[in-house]
Amino acid sequence: MMDTKNIMIVGVGGQGTLLASKLLGAVLLGRGYDVKVSEVHGMSQRGGSVVTYVRWGDRVYSPVIDEGEADIILSFELLEAARYLRFLKKGGRIIVNTQRMDPMPVITSAAAYPENLVEKMKSAGADVDAADFLSLANQAGSARAVNVALLGRLSRLLPEITEETWLEAIAKGVPPKFVDVNQQAFLLGRAQA
Q1: Distance between CA atoms of 146 and 62, rounded to whole angstroms?
Q2: pLDDT tens digit string along 48-70?
Q3: What is the CATH number of the domain that holds 83?
Q4: Residue 4 contacts residue 71 (beta carbons within 8 Å)
Q5: Contact partners, residue 4, CB within 8 Å, separation at least 6
Q6: 85-128: pLDDT as tens digits
Q7: Contact predicate 96/146, CB 8 Å
């Protein structure tokens, strides 16, 4: 019996969190797992916080991840990673894009964007894997592929799933004209040291 595994994907509306969760779900289903992908929580329009849950195992009964249950948090933006830190289980890992997207209170000068977020998350006990995945996406040919670059990094934590399986899921899950860019972004994220 395999224990249920939990990944939270967090970001800002417009960053591609839904596509990332769809691709991850497809890859896991293809491996024969019972998979539950949650509905979106939060404001999915551009700029709002978006959270999706992906849970898999031999038998998964609920799509919801509670505080302290996430094995991995995949975060498209620094502040979103810090915001959902309480959901990470002890010994869990955060993979975070170091990109900053100012929320409305920062844009309107009602608040300041918090500094040293990676250090703060590490001092709270989190295993933080932070990198500039946006630059990898740009290197692949499109900033919009940042979500798939992050999946590339995540793929290293799921060694039972082959690179070929991921690339096939991307080929089936994105429009044909964006397959090459997304596969390249995935490979760059996977190779990120």
Answers
A1: 28
A2: 788 999 999 999 999 899 999 99
A3: 3.40.920.10
A4: no
A5: 55, 56, 57, 59, 60
A6: 999 999 999 999 998 888 878 888 888 889 999 999 999 999 99
A7: no
Beta bridge partners of 35: 56
Torsion over CA: 38, 42, 45, 46 (sign): negative
Segments forming the whole domain that contains residue 132: 5-191
12 forms bridges with which residues in the sheet? Answer: 49
Positive or negative, the CA dihedral 157, 19, 34, 163 is: negative
CB-CB neighbours of 5 under 10 Å: 17
Total number of domains in the chain = 1
Question: What is the number of helices (H) and of strands (E) in the chain?
Answer: 8, 7
Amino acid occupying residue 63:
P
φ, ψ dihedrals at 65, nearest 5°: -110, 125
